[in-house]
Amino acid sequence: MQALASLYSANASLIKPINKKGKTDYLVSVPCTCEDIDNGTVGYFHDTPYTVKAGDTAGNITSFLFSGQAYNISEKLMAGVAIIVHLPCGCYSALAAGQSQLVTYTVQQGDTLSTIADLFDSDVNSIRMMNTRLTVDPEFLSPGWVLFVPMGMKQNNNQEQGERSKKTGFALEISIPIIILVIGGLILFFYWKHKSGQSVEDPKELKDRSISKIGSHGSKFSHKDSTKDLLPYESERPLIFSLEELEEATANFDETRKIGSGGYGCVYFGMLGKQEVAVKKMKSNKSKEFFAELKILCKVHHINVVELIGYTSGDDHLYLVYEYVQNGSLSEHLHDPLLHGHQALSWNARAQIALDAARGIEYIHDHTKARYVHRDIKTSNILLDNGLRAKIADFGLAKLVERTGEDDCFATRLVGTPGYLPPESVCELQMTTKTDVFAFGVVLAELITGYRALFRDSKEANKMRSLISIMKGIFQDEDPEAALEAIIDGNLKGRDLLLLLPSRSYSLSAFLFRLGIVGDTEEKMPELQLGAHTIRSHGTKVARFHMHDWIILLLLIVIDVVLNVIEPFHRFVGKDMMTDLRYPMKSNTVPFWAVPLYAILLPLAIFSAIYFRRRNVYDLHHAILGLLFSVLLTAVLTDAIKDAVGRPRPDFFWRCFPDGKDVYDNFTTSVMCHGEKSVIKEGHKSFPSGHSSWSFAGLGFLAWYLAGKIKAFDRRGHVAKLCIVFLPLLAAALVATSRVDDYWHHWQDVFAGGLLGLVVASFCYLQFFPPPYDMDGWGPHAYFQVLADTNTAQVSATTNPLHLRQSEMETVYASTEQHNDLIVRDTNRILDALEAGRRH
Q1: SS3 67
Q2: Domains of the chain: which residue ranges?
């Protein structure tokens, strides 16, 4: 023992015997210092003097006296000369906190990493980390190799695992209750929606309910013939409300509930139970219009005529309650639609609206017991439901006409809206069904051109021009098609439009028939306006259908948390690599906590703003779902690649050696870091850039979404739209650039991260939405599927929604050279063919 202490220049009391396979070896504790030995080699060594004996060689001294651990003994030895033997030591600072002993061990025959670890109460992974030569083949050991073995690492690892488990447990203590609360909240929400859905009052029961007697209100009507006028309506059992009910339904006729106004009064949105209604509040001097609507709408029941639910009177006002038609008037969709929160109507949608309006007008003309003339057909009196199907409204000026051989009836006063009145009505006060047909022709012209019926002359600002005068000029032009094409609404796509243009020989029915053929044989669905599917009406259905998608999102969150907790792969970092890894450590220009703000919360705010304007839960839900999938999938892919690649960051030198004193393995020149473990761990996560991938995943999805909403690819060359689309991408690019400027990433890391995020965002967007350049690119796939299913069900359930009579003749107004001839033709076969075409 004393001889061993003398050989190693050690304290004999610090030498401990160890038993290895029945053979006694010794563990010699010696002090080590960092020194510069010959040839400029810097490292940790223990120096011991040795007097050369006769016959000694460098190999003998190294292999037999010092177990192969002597470093670089000179071959030129002389007996009796004292030399200094350098014995390599491992770097203490590279060990875990609290580690104080590192064994320099020579591999012997039959050794494995496991047996060596057991011998010194060490850990296999710790041995691998201390000896970079083992990274090539960790299971291969060659006798004579010198390894650095950290002693007592099992105990230290147990402590670290305990601390880590505490941290993990703490994280789980926080995350698990949050997840449980979220899931519980979703379950309670769905349960509440389900129960509230069951409690909705049956509309049929609501309609059969009798609230009060009309006699209590009759005395308040100003006209003496009120009782007479009410008799036909009473026989149809209308719903009579109390004034208190309507006040409660409309929040006491709050101004925020007002959805329309005119000379008759105002229209308010209301809720009667769970039913949405529109309440028209009329002035008491409008009782004539009030009774006109009562008499007609209680007898007219058609899918293209607005439905009257009930009425009441009181407080010097008269009230009519209608079904609520969600998408407002046709006028709002044709004239400055964006100002009213609507998308411009597509050609197919306009064709369908024209057909619906024509059927509604035809019904009140020819398929009711009494024939009625509306007398105020215009775009503001054509309402659109959630599928952009048209309904004729406002029958306050409607008049009963006799079914006689007389073509003309005469009115005592001129009624209607300027721009929609035919010359005969203006000059001769004529009132026939042809009056409505003429006004409908103006509506058709508005659908094609987007102009108003009356508009200010561009040449003479103090004069007004009528759309009819423009259309007459077109038909008299040498090239009517070219003239009409020049004033077509700029929002129309123009496909097959010229095939639909009516020549002078076409009757209105023939023109409508051609509209119907093209509109109903289109391969794709008509572009319909979002707006009627709210969270309240459809939220439960949408969320329940996509419940599995939300569960997958929760799993992605868990996976990403695990990927951030585990230790990344530590790629070999040598001394000669430090030139590219010596950039200074800087703080983040864009902190990590800011990334979710602009990559997730900002798009969510934009989605919500669009929802509150258009009220479509399908668009909101799928936008949120697509965004979250884009960000979370990108996060999982990014963190998985980071852990697998383990590329060092540009500032890795200062993470590894915060004091600037770099230390390397003597044999492999691998770094021997002595910085903070968490900082070093983060230093091995350079590729790809997480900030870049997250930014392009969230803002890239937003760019796709905006491109679809503003129709950036409508082939009209609006540069402003491109600027809006590229703005989120510019923000993402600036964030990515800051990662290179901060020396947190190499440029390749940023490029790969941005590309990864943009690709994932594109796939996720196209999973839920059509491409922005598609004609249906403004809405989600699910919305069009719902509309298709609804239309299929309606067609299957209704074989003859118009109740057409086989012998009816229609009188239509057709444009001729004199513009006032009438053509009488049988249109029932055309309409029947049209209905058959729609069914097939």
Answers
A1: coil
A2: 2-152, 203-324, 337-530+782-840, 568-778
Residue 534 CB-half CA count within 13 A: 9
pLDDT, mean of residues 820-832? 37
Q: Roughly what angle, to the nearest 10 degrees, separates helices 226-235 and 287-297? A: 20
Distance of CA 371 to the CA centre of its chain: 51
CA dist 447 and 441 (Å) reads 10
512-569 pLDDT, tens digit per residue, is 444 444 344 333 333 333 334 555 556 566 777 778 888 999 999 999 999 998 989 8
Closest by Cα among 430, 402, 400 to 416: 430
pLDDT confidence of 346, banded at 50, 70, 90? confident
Is the Cβ–Cβ distance between 405 and 428 less than 8 Å?
Answer: no
Question: Of 231-235, 666-670, 689-693, where does mean pLDDT reach its minimum?
Answer: 231-235
Distance from C-alpha of 225 to C-alpha of 427, rounded to nearest angstrom: 31
197-212 pLDDT per residue, tens: 444 344 334 333 333 3
And the tokens for 115? Answer: 């047996």
The separation between CA 837 and the C-alpha centre of its own chain, rounded to angstroms, equals: 37
Q: What is the pLDDT of residues 727-760, one digit of tens each?
A: 999 999 999 999 999 889 999 999 999 999 999 9
**Gap between the Cα atoms of 58 and 123, Å rounded:** 33
pLDDT value at residue 69 = 78
Count of alpha carbons within 13 angstroms of residue 783, beta-carbon side: 29
Q: How far is CA 563 from the centre of its chain?
A: 26
CA distance 53 to 824: 133
Question: Angle at which helices 617-645 and 690-709 pack, to 10 degrees?
Answer: 160
Report residue 198: phi and psi, to 5°: -75, -25
Superfamily of domain 203-324: Phosphorylase Kinase; domain 1 (3.30.200.20)
Tell me how far apart the alpha carbons of residues 435 and 655 are, in angstroms, rounded to a whole number.
86
**CA nearest to 808, candidates 409, 362, 196:** 362
Could you give the C-alpha distances from 384 to 231, 297, 331, 381, in angstroms and in order?
A: 31, 18, 10, 10
- Compute the distance between CA of residue 518 and CA of residue 352 in angstroms, rounded to an integer: 10
User: What is the distance between the alpha carbons of residues 817 and 252, in angstroms, rounded to a whole number?
Assistant: 55
610: number of Cβ within 10 Å: 19
Task: Name the DSSP letter for residue 574.
Answer: B
Catalytic residues: 376
CA gap 636, 736 in Å, rounded:
18
Structure tokens at 169: 């447990």
- Give the single-character DSSP code of 93: G
- According to the model, what pLDDT value does residue 208 have? 39
Asked if the model's pLDDT at residue 795 lies above 70, the reply is: no
Residues marked as binding?
Answer: 281
Q: What are the structure tokens assigned to 193, written together?
A: 């929606």
Cβ distance 689 to 722 under 8 Å? no
Tokens of 509: 């029915």
- CATH number for the domain running over 2-152: 3.10.350.10
| Pair type for strands 454-456 and 23-28 | unpaired
CA atoms within 13 A on the CB side of 281: 23
- List residues forming the annotated binding site for ATP: 281
Cis peptide before 688 (omega within 30 of 0): yes
In the block, which residue shows the tokens 């103006």?
Answer: 442
Torsion angle, CA of 198/203/205/206, rounded to 10 degrees?
A: 110
State CA 617 to chain mean position distance: 11
pLDDT of residue 612: 83
Q: What is the pLDDT of residue 721?
A: 84
This prediction's pTM: 0.41
Q: Rounded to whole angstroms, how far apart are CA atoms 337 and 327?
A: 11
Architecture of the domain delimited by 337-530+782-840: Orthogonal Bundle (1.10)
With tokens 């106004």, the residue in question is 261
DSSP symbol at 61: I
